[in-house]
Amino acid sequence: MSDDLQPETLAIHTGIHRSQFNEHSEALYLTSSYVFDSAAQAAARFAGEEPGNIYSRFTNPTVTALEERLAALEEAETCIATSTGMSAILTSVMGLLSAGDHIVASRSLFGATVNLFNNILKRFNIDTTFVSATDVSAWEAAVRPNTKLFFLETPSNPLTEISDITELSKVAKKAGAWLAVDNCFCTPILQKPLKLGADIVIHSATKYLDGQGRVLGGAVLGNRELLMEGGVFGFLRTAGPTLSAFNAWVILKGLETLKIRLDAHANNAMQMARWLEAQPNIERVYYPGLPSHPQYDLATSQQKNGGGIVSFEVKGGKQAAWRVIDESRLISITANLGDTKSTLTHPASTTHGRISQEARDDAGISDGLLRIAVGLEAVQDIQADLARGLA
Fold first, then answer.
1. Which single residue of 3, 79, 209, 222 could bond 71 by disulfide (Cβ 3.0 to 4.6 Å)?
2. Is the domain of 264 the same as that of 158?
3. 204 is a domain residue
4. Distance of CA 150 to the CA centre of its chain
5. Which domain holds residue 343?
6. In DSSP terms, which residues pair with 282 in a beta bridge?
């Protein structure tokens, strides 16, 4: 596929390998294994001496099509698809790190990611130091001789803090560490971390890449040597946190409308953020597209727009925040995001409910905070639905 094509074209045409039937839409290959022409061919495939499919735990034509398409969008050499976004993070860490290694991570992460680093990886003697997402000097100060990985989300979940990918990549390289960026909120349509200096990009394909709340999926992207030979693919091949062919096919179709959806999500989110700032019962609004955002200038230079996630503090704490949720009739009360339908959640009791109160306080997640993933409905209808609970 030509490098000159625009993202919306790549998202439709990359990764199409037509079968003997010459189908127009991508084929869905629902098979667990593949037949070889001979014993010699089977041996060559298993030894890696001949390309081709072996077993759908790690090779499937539909999954490969998705990997090629997403790699083209992120401008990555290779992509490894996984069963979920969390399995993408786990696959990266287990594939690249060993007992005794150290991670420096943003304290502003999805709650399950914090639990993975803080609890599960600690059992395997992989330590994590959590620092401010926005203070580059804090990352420098946290580096140890055994630091192997920097990990962050930008924008962060749920406060949409913006990390300086370019500056942090310099710190990581100086430390001899890899920089991994969770690009879930922006997708490659709005932000390309690899072009800014990151080594690894992580996706929860469950979110905007699918875009309609249908299936789970994840992806790890970067250069071929790091991912294919550095241990990430080897972990997936052996441990099997595999993306199903059906889910890959659904996400492939989702990618075809990614550009047009992201533009519409961002347009609605900007209108929503401005409206929320004008509401008397709102303490503060967090949205990278607003000039009031602390990292507005960085967001403007690093992202194409502010994205579709808006968080806001309701006056009156948890009781008032829950009232806004309970009074909604149109917005879905769910912790998922990136859907055509707007979703609303209370992070302190849902997405970040399993981390400690101290960790929530450090990350700025108060009891009055709500996160809305602004969907594709008419924005005035979403505003009217929130207004009921804010009244």
1. 79
2. no
3. yes
4. 16
5. 259-390
6. 314
